[in-house]
Amino acid sequence: SFYYGTFPAGFLWGVGSSAYQTEGAWDKDGKGPSIWDAFTHKKGKVFRNDTGDSACDGYYKVKDDIQLLKELKVNHYLLSISWPRIMPTGIKAEQLNEKGIQFYNDTINSLLENNITPIVSLYHWDLPQVLQEKYGGWQNISMINYFNDYANLCFEKFGDRVKHWITFSNPWAVAEKGYETGEHAPGLKLGGCGAYKAAHHIIKTHAKVWHSYNNTWRREQRGMVGISLTSGWGEPVDPHSQTDRDAAERYIQFHLGWFANPIYRGDYPEVMKNFIGRKSAQQGLGTSRLPTFSVQEKTYIKGTSDFLGIGHFTTRYVLQKNFPFLQVSSYHTDHDLAELVDPNWPAPGPKWLYSVPWGFRRLLNFIKTQYGNPLIYVTENGMSETVQCPQLCDEWRIQYLKGYINEILKALNDGVNVKGYTAWSLLDKFEWNKGFSERFGLYHIDFNNKNKPRYPKASADYYKKIISANGFPNPREVENWHRKAMDTCSATHQHLAADSLITHMEMVTEIVLPTVFTLCILISIVLLILYLRNHS
């Protein structure tokens, strides 16, 4: 049932984005190539061979986008820094890019001038390509020191103003999609080992960066360092079946626990160690494919998060499924489970993203119980659409945001320590291997227009009302927001249609006029030649 009420005073409301997905300017002003530049420039890796070369042109539109943040009246903006933009090869000793550093200085200053708190992620997937080519990226332990150098440069250059740092955004996807399935950059398919090795190095890197901040910068800068973990909720198909309950627990532990358990409890979840260890032994391996932490490393990693960032999008029903003994190992067969969805769950966008708000409250309560009720910031939560024509009257996104934010309010009443919420995302943007076919934005971008104008969707207007009211005061007011948002989007849609027509006419003019002009010249030349021949 829907719960009417407001959030505590001081609750933070924001929106987010990431560097590669929005900035563009992939090779401008001294930026080095990232693994995503290399990956997207290979044909067949991304839907329709889209790239983030220009993305949303966010590099050139900082002021425009800050104006959108002001319209929404958000408290904070979650952005990421592109490692190769400020350190082109990823190696501090080799080269720093002052223009890149200046870009982020200007962005941070502009946010603060407009009373918007920057929450900064150091890594949203765009590893410098040089580090991938030279060392194999996150498969190599040397990444720990290179990333720590990069993080310390960011603390030095921006830490006087940035007080909320995220080391890694959704490292699960970095490991699983980058080094297991190869769906994401760097596109490696190192089945059964690659993801675990990458995750192991990422966890150790996170801990090193936290200790660097703690020992060198904390006293002076008084900021916080956390990590942002993305996980769905796993609900047992049969809550009375112990095997289904165990399978649902494994689902969470193989997603969230993989990273959260070492940071909050000092080691990988027991169920991961047991299952991967047993399957490794069945394959005749002398040691587990899941790496181990030494006693010293466990102590060093435990407690290295001042807050926990949580990304959450959807839920699955889970049941036990035994995979037969396979010579070819895989993360996906290690946990012996199958995922199901309820066909009645709304899924207006891509088929992976079902709207299941109640799963969010359960996930937040799981975190409270499992990890000692840590300080939580929701760092990513949103709904995408896949329809190709503009969808400004996004009724389904309004329902999604309303439902999921309401579950946070219920979780607060359960005693969960949530201090802020970040809607994902501010803009329609490049969605990794899906290119521009999925749209998460509260603001629509017309990518056919060279100026890439932004248009508010109905959900932007609705979210703005939630922020202003700090929650859901009463049924009448909330219903009124919905009506006004839908009215506003209709007018914006007409504006967009008119702009699109003008853009189309401009494109036609740009193509047709030069073509006609060229033809006229060619015809004139032919006629002149014929004339001269006849008179000679």
From TrEMBL:
Its EC number is 3.2.1.21, 3.2.1.45, 3.2.1.46. The chain crosses the membrane at residues 511-532. It catalyses: a beta-D-glucosyl-(1<->1')-N-acylsphing-4-enine + H2O = an N-acylsphing-4-enine + D-glucose; a beta-D-xylosyl-(1<->1')-N-acylsphing-4-enine + cholesterol = cholesteryl 3-beta-D-xyloside + an N-acylsphing-4-enine; beta-D-galactosyl-(1<->1')-N-octadecanoylsphing-4-enine + H2O = N-octadecanoylsphing-4-enine + D-galactose; beta-D-galactosyl-(1<->1)-sphing-4-enine + H2O = sphing-4-enine + D-galactose. One of its GO terms (molecular function) is beta-glucosidase activity. The active site is at residue 380. Gene3D superfamilies: Glycosidases. The keyword Iron-sulfur does not apply. InterPro entries: GH, GH_1_N_CS, Glyco_hydro_1, Glyco_hydro_1_AS. It holds the Pfam family Glyco_hydro_1. The keyword Transmembrane applies. It comes from the Eukaryota. GO terms for biological process: carbohydrate catabolic process. Keywords: Glycosidase, Hydrolase, Membrane, Transmembrane, Transmembrane helix. Belongs to the glycosyl hydrolase 1 family. Klotho subfamily. This is Cytosolic beta-glucosidase.
